[in-house]
Write a structure and sequence with these properties.
4 helices, mainly alpha, 434 Repressor (Amino-terminal Domain), 93 residues, single chain
Length: 93
């Protein structure tokens, strides 16, 4: 496992249930979730059923914590988030 700052990090994939919970709490339908994550809607369906990679978990966390603006020298992506976001609870922080 990767080491950072003297402690071990564990990269855990996001389960389908966790993804569905995130999507519901964010108030996203499948099209909105696909747009926010910049992926195809069919991929959303797959993530809802089978879960997704660790990077999906990070992307969902970034959107949840309203870190939806990614800027670099080459590109800028703006994501519009719903205003009625619910608390995600202890399992998603």
């Amino acid at each position: 496992m990767p080491k950072t700052g003297g402690y071990t990090t564990k990269m855990v994939k996001m389960t389908g249930e966790e993804f569905q919970d995130w999507q519901t709490r964010m108030g996203f339908n499948c099209g909105e979730a696909a747009s926010a994550l910049n992926i195809h809607p069919n991929t959303i369906v797959r993530y809802r059923e089978k879960g997704g990679p660790y990077m999906l978990r990070l992307a969902c966390l970034a959107l949840y914590h309203r870190l939806g603006s990614i800027a670099s020298d080459q590109a800028s992506i703006e994501v519009s988030l719903p205003s009625n976001r619910q608390a995600m609870g202890d399992n998603f922080q």
